[in-house]
Amino acid sequence: MVLEKTEFFRAVTDVKTLPQSVAEVIFSGRSNVGKSSVINALCGRKNLARTSKTPGRTRSVNVYSVVMRKWIIDLPGYGFARVSPAEKELWKQMIEECIIERESKKTVYIIIDALVGPTELDLNMADWLKDYNVDYKIVANKCDKISQPDLNEIIKKTAEIFEVGQNFVFAVSAKKNTGIDKFRADIVKFLK
Ligand SMILES: Nc1nc2c(ncn2[C@@H]2O[C@H](COP(=O)(O)OP(=O)(O)O)[C@@H](O)[C@H]2O)c(=O)[nH]1
Ligand SMILES: [Mg+2]
């Protein structure tokens, strides 16, 4: 299975309108950490997922089809400062419906900014997933922003903070394609 064949499937604001999938990998993270860029890098495409210079643009759940009924799901980013409490509530509902209420085999990748490191919101997300027994791994993106990035060091530190094994952490740069092959292999293995 190659991610190069991945196609845009649907953008929805109501997750209930989605059909069931066989398996799906879900991308979550703060706005602007590079979720869309990572998806493009993984699929070897420039504009499959729309990227944005302005944080918080993605308000819909964007679904990409790797092969029939096997998906990559790009969730709207969290932690965007200028959103109303009402919008935050909608976001929460959307995430709950997407991650907990749908029955498909799924795994979540929490994307973080390698330079910023994990934020409280990222750790909250991890705790929440743990509570609901949803498997997750961490992806530290923008490693190119760190001078002479030692990916192993980033992996080690991130694993410590999230209290997970180092094989649950990937260090990548969507911009420079660093670490993307290894991350892609993990996704392909899950979707197989
Ligand atoms: N330096 C650097 N910038 C990145 C990387 N990935 C994404 N960006 C930039 O971060 C911004 C947000 O990217 P986007 O993919 O839209 O983030 P999203 O909101 O999480 O989907 C854009 O300006 C990207 O060019 C990376 O690996 N390195
Ligand atoms: Mg995006």
Descriptive overview:
With 192 residues, the chain is α/β, with parallel strands linked by helices. The protein has a single domain (3-191), classed as P-loop containing nucleotide triphosphate hydrolases (Rossmann fold). It is built from five helices and seven strands, in the order ββαββαβαβαβα. The chain has helices spanning 35-43, 85-101, 120-131, 151-162, 180-191, and strands spanning 7-12, 23-29, 61-67, 70-74, 105-113, 136-141, 169-171. It has a seven-stranded mixed sheet, with helices on both faces. β6, α4 and β7 (169-171) form a beta-alpha-beta unit. The termini are close together. The chain binds guanosine-5'-diphosphate and magnesium ion. This is Probable GTP-binding protein EngB. Belongs to the TRAFAC class TrmE-Era-EngA-EngB-Septin-like GTPase superfamily. EngB GTPase family. Keywords: Cell cycle, Cell division, GTP-binding, Magnesium, Metal-binding, Nucleotide-binding, Septation. One of its GO terms (molecular function) is GTP binding. Its cofactor is Mg(2+).
Compact overview of the structure:
The protein has 192 residues and is an alpha/beta fold. It is built from five helices and seven strands, in the order E-E-H-E-E-H-E-H-E-H-E-H. A seven-stranded mixed sheet has the order 1-3-4-2-5-6-7, with helices on both faces.
The whole-angstrom Rg is 15 Å
Note the beta-strand portion: 15-25%
- Give the low-pLDDT segments: none
What is the number of strand segments? 7
The H/E string reads: EEHEEHEHEHEH
Largest sheet: 7 strands, mixed
Record the strand order, biggest sheet: 1-3-4-2-5-6-7
CATH class: Alpha Beta
Q: Structurally, how many domains make up the residues? A: 1
The average pLDDT value, as a whole number, equals 91
Q: Could you say what the CATH architecture is?
A: 3-Layer(aba) Sandwich
CATH superfamily: P-loop containing nucleotide triphosphate hydrolases
State the helix count.
5
